[in-house]
Amino acid sequence: MIFRTTPSRTARPALRRVRTAAALRPLRHRLDPARMEEIPFGTSDGVRLGLTRVDTGDPARPAVLLLHGHTASADMFLLPETRNLVDVLLDEGYEPWLLDWRGSCRLPYNETGRRYTYDDVALYDIPEAVAHIRGRIGERPLFVVAHCIGSLTLSMSLAAGLVPGLAGVVSQGVFLTPKLGGRTSLRMSVAGELLKTRIDHIPVDFRKVGLWSKYTPLFALASRRASCPDPTCQILHNSAWGTGASLFVHENLDGATHDRLAELLGPAPLWILPHLRRIELARSVVRWHDTDHRYRALPPNALDAAARIDTPVLLLAGSENGLWLDSQRLCHEVLAHRQPQLDVSYAEIPGYGHLDTFLGRGAALDVFGHILDFLGGRR
């Protein structure tokens, strides 16, 4: 029989497989598994996060909380193929803590489930993780080393007075004064409007989406004038999820790290772009929720409330940062003029971009010394 008068059951389109549970993907590391304490942790607004403590066996060590960037995860501090930041902190007498906030690629929230803004990270994720850690470490000093959006949202938490009394903060890439390139800002605005009715996130792993998918034109655009044949590298190094920016200096990555990029960085949600665009246009970290009273603890503009920052801050940036450009130098200059009483310093790493300040094969030699000098002077 050639024709059917009733639809076939097999003709229904297959459902796309996505992660819907908040189960954390296991961390990859070379430490003794017995030392890795995975702590069940959720926020007061009902979101499950990931919190990991590296047990040192020494209850007197200062603690250091590590905050990843958006779509990254705690994995970025634990690379087994290089001497990573956790290795260095352990050797120098610190107790590392790693938070997978709701933008982590170890969690499903960027692709499915509950949507959020950076207000939620600043109001819930970071302050409640800090409170939990303080409940465990008592009076020991607590430092924070934060990367990219983890640093940007931390700046809002600090300006709101939600994480007082930190021993020191290392901010990498961007802090209170976000600054994107003109092309990046334009693409972000245009792409956000054109694509928001078709897709809700931009993936990085071409092997998962396949050739015949709605994402193929984005990967094709990212491959233009690319020197690396790997599609994941192209959409990150050559395009930064289609924005035209670059996330790292290619030559700084170890081969094994390069091959793991699709594991280390996940899909970027497009529904976060309106908040990010408002932040970038203001050249400051601004609150998204203006009428929701749940967020009234956050200041409308974190830069205007920077006087509440009560901890020393090291602003760190690679000289070749292709995403946030000279945001950190700008932040240092603005704070020196507007809030000269704050203890804020700036260090620039020659030859480094954005992500490679932590993922680079030589970061332990070229970057981490600046972090250790800062922490050591305040422990």
Automatic annotation (TrEMBL):
CC cofactor: FAD
Domain AB hydrolase-1: 62-171
Pfam family name, one: Abhydrolase_1
Domain of life of the native organism: Bacteria
Keyword annotations: FAD, Flavoprotein, Oxidoreductase
Keyword Oxidoreductase carried by entry: yes
Keyword Flavoprotein annotated: yes
Family, per entry: Belongs to the GMC oxidoreductase family.
PANTHER family: CHOLESTEROL OXIDASE, FAD-DEPENDENT OXIDOREDUCTASE 2 FAD BINDING DOMAIN-CONTAINING PROTEIN
UniProt protein name: Esterase
Organism this protein belongs to: Streptomyces cellostaticus
